[in-house]
Amino acid sequence: MQGKKTYQEKLFTTIQLSKRIPSNNYYRRMKRLIDFSFIYKKTESLYGKKGKESIDPVVFFKLCLIKKIENISSDRKLIALCRLRLDLLYFLDYNLDEKLPAATTISHTRRNYPEELYNSICEEIELKRKDI
Questions:
Q1: What is the C-alpha separation between 70 and 78, in angstroms, rounded?
Q2: Which partner from 14, 29, 95, 112 sits 20 to 30 angstroms from 63, CA to CA?
């Protein structure tokens, strides 16, 4: 008897991204092996104490890293890819139903970082990534 799969969308689903990402996935390994918390200390002086909360600087630099690794040419394409890929959401610490930063936010953030600081953080991440 021939089976026929029919799709019925569920309104509620329970899913743990960590259970869906293979243990040998590159982004999972990076998440486990690289401590990105150094970024907070390096960028702390750029942020005020009041006002609208910014994009998390660790998320920003992880997005920049994904853009480089995946050879993506635009921030819009980057966000579109991150919406689709479970391993990227997991790496970024986002859940399926969480809204990712807007592409324009990424562009504005990149422009607001002093070039020397931006490059030094990227270089430090690259050094840590070489061990993976």
A1: 9
A2: 14
